[in-house]
Prior knowledge:
By secondary structure, the chain is of the alpha+beta class. 17% of the residues lie in helices and 31% in strands. The chain is built from one helix and seven strands, in the order E-E-E-E-E-E-E-H.
Amino acid sequence: MSGTIKWEVIKEKSEKYKAEFRGSTGGRDYKGSPIWDYHAYCKWDGCIELTQYSNGYGYGHECLGVGACGCEQQDFHICSLAEFLFELGVLLEEARHYYRDKPGAEYWGENKDG
Length: 114
């Protein structure tokens, strides 16, 4: 990862049973303002919709259509976030074990976060 994500609540879009957040790694900005690499919609029932943006665009960017501007986004629907994070930790350890003596081992080392 390029850095710790700084999360900010989007107050005007949040209410009693839902909260929306935008997140930035701080690595990119546009005219002095951060480019928000992430958007999270957190519902009262523990489920989240998480969007990750790339190719120079971020939360709030309006594209003219699929493929029109080269922006990319990945969407995830996750319930039981703690369980999902635990399972990703298990996957990380398996990948580290697999790549220990293979090309790419430096990317999966014990001091790396993936």
